[in-house]
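Let us practice reading a record.
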Amino acid sequence: MTAIARQKPDYPLLTVVGMLVPIGVVMVYSASFVDAFANHGDQLYYTWRQFVAAIIGAVTMLVIQRTDYRVWRRYSVHLMAVTLFLLVLTLLLPASFTEVNSARSWIRIGSFSMQPSEIAKLALVVYIADWLSKRGGKLTNVTYGLVPFGVMLGVVCGLVMLGGDLGTTVVLILIAAVVYFAAGASLLHLAGAAILAGGAFWAMVAVAPYRMERIAAWQNPWDYYLGAGYQPVHALYALGSGGIFGVGLGQARQKFLWLPQAHTDTIFAIIGEEFGLLGTLFLVTCFLVIAYRGFRIAGRAPEPFAQLLAVGLTAWLVFQALVNMAVVTSLLPFTGLTMPLVSYGGTSLVMTMVAVGVLLSISRYTGDAAVLESDDESKPRRIPPVAGAVAGWWRNRRPRVSGTGSRRGARRGWGSLKRR
């Protein structure tokens, strides 16, 4: 492979994540101590579990960021196979081992529990980044590009959806669409796939009465206060009660058994109540920084696989956060989806920190080649058009000053801009 230089990790990204995770542990305690004491007799029941997950996630993230990201490519198929096995297992095991809140998306054995759909996000990003980076010009061909891509995505999303996890299914589709677009897919193919996905989504909603009720409650939650509108209404009460500066840490009222899932799906509402508009804007800013740094890493990545992997991981973290915020503020129908790095959930926290670790690993490798050789050195692999354009823009955004060749390249770049 083409030689690439190892650099320091992306410290701004690491800093933001280093702030969000401790904030998340504190907010999990604040949002959950009433529920924990009422249902488990221990107000630290959820907090200790989140703290342990944070430690495991931090150690894993630091190990992964020091590991060559290309290891993930080598085991992409294995990771997908294990994920599919776990997703099938959630459907085959008795409901007592897998069902939480009417969704069969868990594997629980004693005190141990895990959520395979969270692993599916990482597995899907790694697998499709590997697969799409090998397609080259065939990507725009329906037979070699769109159809097999749709089948792969359909299998993963179908298994997640059979478990009743609509929120994760939506996130998986969004991630896959962004990576597919970044790889240089035809806009016509994307439009057709979007229409089919929209039809399938509406069919999945229509076959489940409780989902139709959520759609109706989204339009006017107060008309369905005793049903699907109860949680959205109290989430809005929490956000509205916070004002600009909030009522103070630990002082939220809605967490006193009024707002369901206050420490998981609706922790954003508790943050808004305790820290007000400023607190929510801080959280939004953190994820905007993650988006900027993540796509910056993608733009500087040395090869197609790294570019698509960085795009997919960034899209995962940012879109899931945006969907969670939109749901809590009733911009979207209510669905169970955690806030990455903040909400309670061991599997979610560890897997999102793994994703950050991979991003940091990619950020430590830089290259200046428009073409990076594949494992088979006789077959050069082209950078996907969209991802290549991002990389080219980032490399040429300012003139270089080292080396005669670099100065000539800089003069040509600036000269072309002046002529335009």
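A brief commentary: The CA atoms of residues 299 and 394 lie 6 Å apart.
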